[in-house]
Amino acid sequence: MKSNSRVAIRKIETGVPGLDDVLGGGLPEFSFNIIAGAPGCGKTTLAHQIMFANATPAKPALYFTVLGEPAIKMLRYQQQFSFFDQTKLSKAVRFVNMSDLVLKEDLGTVLAEIIKQVEAARPSLVVVDSFRTVVRKSQAGGPGGEVELQGFIQRLALHLTSWQATTFLIGEYTDGEIRDNPVFTVADGLLWLSQSVERNSIVRKMQIMKLRGQESVPGLHTFRITSDGLQAFPRTFGLIGPENKKKGTRRLSSGIPELDKMLGGGVPSGHSLLLAGPSGAGKSILGTHFIGEGLKQGEAGIVAVFEERPDEYANRAAKLGLKFGPALKSGKLEIIYLRPLDLSVDETVNEVVAAVKRTKAKRLVIDSLVGFELALAPDFRTDFRESLYRMIVALTRLGVTIVSTVEIEENFTSLGLSNFAISFLSDDIIRMRYVSIDGQLRRMLMVVKMRSGAHSIDMREYHVTSKGIVIGERLRGYTGLTTGIPGAWDGGLGSISESNNGKKKKR
Amino acid sequence: MTASLASMNLARRLIAMEAVHGRTFRTNTSRADADPALQVCEKLRIVLTTFAGGAGFQALLSRALTMAKVQAPALAVVQILEDGSVAGLDKLDAKTNRGKGAAGAVLVAHLLELLALFVGESLMLQLVLDAWPDAPAGALRERNEDTQRP
After folding, report:
1. What domains does chain A contain, in order, with CATH numbers?
2. Could you list the pLDDT tens digit for every one of the 150 residues in chain B?
3. For chain B, which residues make up each domain, given as ranges?
4. Are residues A70 and B53, on separate chains, in Cβ contact within 8 Å?
5. Which is it for the CA torsion A289, A295, A300, A303, positive or negative?
6. Chain A residues within 8 A of B119 when measuring between CB atoms
7. Beta bridge partners of B80
8. ipTM exceeds 0.85, yes or no
């Protein structure tokens, strides 16, 4: 068959932010779908959201309620969501209660009633909530029940598809019920919703377990339910097949000329730079310089903060002489404060990606990765490194240059790069640390890694001043600077003699 | 608890519409016993049963009757049947079921009030409009104007 003779399956927009990306563009028109999951995970809300997004008087929706949540209560709660459009009721959205029929009659009569209603209303969307009730009824009917149920589902699917309706059956199922389930066999699409409690946080996830005819994004995607309904956070961050900008085509100034020199001309564009150092080292200030310099050059920027509020961040920048107010007003700069405690990485990144797209940002500062991790629900912390990898890849593909800060517990015997073992995710690493010299706790920084091109290997002292970071001279005349407790450099003679079987010789 | 003036007004308007409809109906047919309040309950039953199920409507109307009986003791003879239909409304003493405080209107008003309580004013009106699709535009929505209790 020639490719151009294939039937084109129209995709229906779900009205759920992020879900169309997860589904691979939307829901296939005329498909027969199951929305499954445990009670309370958002199945009914999802169905309502899809229904209100699509129903029109010309293409109405029929919502059959079957012994699940009573219709009056359902509407009482559902109308609290912003997507609930009361003007659509009756003309575009119709609710039909089938509880009595299911209780009193057999599946054949139930099917006949659904068919009658469908033929009368000619809906483009049909929801049966909860379909599990129908299944239970068939199971109560003895050994022949399963065959009867399979026949019922098949005829229902056939009929609704023939009447050009996209169908959703809603049901409470547990993981163990997936196998050999006739309902799932017939379905074209299976959307599985789940929620779990991790310590004090609730984590909601969805999975497209089955979707005929199109490529959905595999895996578990987190979602949140707010007053606007569901919002999904695809693992791809909605960045499937976008531009893949070449890295390092230009250098971005850090805002500190001496540091730019150490970096071989600045931070390569599209790179992820890690600023690692102990508390008080000035990592956040360096990040602020980076954003401030971008604004000076007309480049939009995003700052994702976890440990302080946006106004506090802007006030701190102002003290360094960097006035962020106008840029914040014009939308050239966004300081995103991500509410702590139960975030998922995907949710966070989706917010950042949306801000990057909105502002066309070229620079992003994440301050800090430690705060980021703490803001996550415990369940997501175990996947932090993997999620971080996906985030950095996604953002740098957009051509954004990222500066992340990470706090390191200072160790005076060795030089750690990060507690997260995420150094490999970074193209470039600047290590900042305290060193004990002449009875003073002084600060030193070095460029540890740069993925493309040469960089300075100097260990430079720096100062945190009222104007920000000022880089001083190379620390000469010391040995063991990386340990934080250097000794006097003896011109290399000591080390030569030490290498000779560990025995010191006379000079 | 007494039904609000707004609910009473809406109930009276619906009953009045049914009375007009009933007169037309009676001139065309031999049926002469259609109580307007009963007809209102019946029309609401059809729409609300489709929407909320028979049991759902029956529960709602039973609660409405309990509250209405406090306000209109004459309703003591009225019963809600299993399918949600009303029995005995047409047997009310004509004296007590007349004028502004008509017992039938009190029952309907409480039903409308309960609906509004659960699904909100506009959804309740939408459901009423479903039952009276030919009602003059805006006539039913005037309920909002006065929410004081009588």
Report:
1. 3-233 (3.40.50.300), 251-434+445-456 (3.40.50.300)
2. 788 999 999 999 999 988 887 665 555 544 445 688 999 999 999 999 988 888 889 999 999 999 999 999 989 999 999 889 999 887 777 666 665 558 999 999 999 999 999 999 888 998 999 899 888 766 666 655 444 444
3. 5-134
4. yes
5. positive
6. 72, 75-76, 79
7. B86
8. no
